[in-house]
Design a protein that fits this description.
Helix content is 23%, strand content 35%. The protein has three helices and six strands; from the N terminus they run ααββββββα. The protein folds into two domains: 1-30, no CATH class; 48-140, Thrombin, subunit H (Beta Barrel). By secondary structure, it is α+β, with helices and mostly antiparallel strands. The longest helix is centred in the N-terminal third of the chain and has 16 residues, at 14-29. The protein has helices at residues 2-5, 14-29, 128-140, and strands at residues 48-59, 65-76, 80-84, 94-99, 105-114, 117-122. The protein is globular, with a radius of gyration of 20 Å.
């Protein structure tokens, strides 16, 4: 009866249903694609203008940091950031960002690149606590 409501064939066993559910769940846990899709609602998050040195970590084999590049954080939100980065250096679409003064490595996807301007979307939303700490650190250093 439950199988009929879920539109599952009556010959399907419970482990098969669970296996299908797990694969759907695994797909939803994958890193989202940075480019927006037609018909999706755009979400705007508050941006904070913060100038802070940071590093782009390009990952090589076996998840080891292959290359580190210096850049400058210009502004940030819980969903992404704008960086100043050398326009002559090519980087992959996906990398990690490390902000000076923080030990966290933030997974990023490149979504915009024009000259020295590099726009990134974070693979997971930043916690509001992380942003508060970043803003406090910037304020205490006299940057805001």
């Amino acid at each position: 009866m439950i199988a009929a409501r879920l539109s599952i064939p009556s010959t399907t066993t419970l482990p098969e249903v669970a296996k299908g559910y797990r694969s759907e769940l695994a797909m939803s846990m994958k890193m989202h694609v940075a480019e927006g899709k037609p018909g999706q609602l755009a979400t705007a998050h508050q941006h904070y203008f913060i100038e802070r040195p940071c590093r782009i970590l390009v990952i090589g084999e076996h998840l080891k940091a292959k290359t580190k590049y210096q850049c400058l954080l210009r502004h940030i939100s819980i969903a992404g950031a704008m960086l100043d980065f050398n326009a002559a250096i090519l980087i992959p679409k996906h990398f990690f960002l490390e902000i000076e003064g923080f030990k966290e490595e933030i997974g990023c996807s490149q979504v915009h690149r024009e000259g020295a301007e590099l726009g990134v979307r974070f693979n997971m939303l930043l916690s509001p606590d992380f942003l508060r700490r970043l803003i406090r650190m910037q304020f205490s250093s006299g940057g805001i």
